[in-house]
Amino acid sequence: MKTWSEFEAVQPIVSQMLKNSIKKGRISHAYLFQGPKGTGKKEAGLLLAKSYFCQYKEDYKPCDECRDCRRIDSGNHPDVHMIVPDGQSIKKEQIAHLQKEFTYTGLESNQKVYILQSADTMTTNAANQLLKFLEEPKRSTLAILLTENGQSILNTIRSRCQIMSFKSLNTDQLEKQLAASGMSESFRKLTASLTNDLEEAQMMAEDDWFAKGRSIVIKLIKVLLEEKDEAFLFLHQQWLPHFQDKEQNQLGLDLLLIWYRDFVSYTIEREEAIIYTDEKKKFENFSFSLSRHQATQALKQISEAKNKLKANVNPALVMEELVLQLQR
């Protein structure tokens, strides 16, 4: 998400508010961008920084070609400072160092921007240090705080920021973003059904472990329907070595759940709802050995298995019981 058009497509309300501020020359001295992971907060901060620095912007849009724009894109602009947690938190020393940097004149202009990632991780001392900074704002300084947990930010800091609430991407928006990155239809539908986080979806699609996990899930279904005697062997030789802990087993069960849900969608002729688009031929083949009622029961059994994992039941025992149920 590197342009205002892309930003507007996924966060129309925040985009409009920021554009109006830029056009009217009323950019706030401090913003708090709050919202779930993967909703474009950091990208929006960098986009705002470009519009703030670009000398050739049209209306509110930066040119994307000048020296300032290119250096912000590359992370090398001398007057744009990105603050990230040092370990688990942002510390007082980091804010103090930032304040010291800002006492100097800008290297190329009087404008300076600082972006605090995971602002909710600031220690109490760091938050108090930042508060002093915000209480005496300079006209040429722009602060952008990013957080997934806005309520964890001190009220005294929140009151000095213009708050922008970022909404979770809906499935259609996420799929469009993933399609623009060149992801195949089957993978973008699958990842978008598992997360509304663009970055996480892209990481899944590029992860060999995830691709292998998807393959193991599909193989398990084939074994359950065509080679039932091999199901326990497959479980212990392939499933459990791959999905090794509770979290991984939850993901495996999510993939299994989606397959059975797709099969039900196929049987009631709702093909537009199918996530595993490359499995349609198999749905047709398996319709002779798997009924809609059995698939619906499987959905219930898989959901129960997920609940048992949440209750800390041993993953191997959960999966063994589930395989027995799905074989019937």
TrEMBL record:
Keyword field contains Nucleotidyltransferase: yes
Alphabetical keyword list: DNA replication, DNA-directed DNA polymerase, Nucleotidyltransferase, Transferase
Cross-referenced SUPFAM superfamilies: P-loop containing nucleoside triphosphate hydrolases (SSF52540)
Domain called DNA polymerase III delta subunit C-terminal: residue spans: 245-327
Known EC number: 2.7.7.7
Reaction it catalyzes: DNA(n) + a 2'-deoxyribonucleoside 5'-triphosphate = DNA(n+1) + diphosphate
Entry keyword annotation includes Nucleotidyltransferase: yes
Signal peptide: none
NCBIfam families linked: holB, PRK08058.1
Protein name, UniProt field: DNA polymerase III subunit delta'
Biological classification of the source: Bacteria, Bacillati, Bacillota, Bacilli, Bacillales
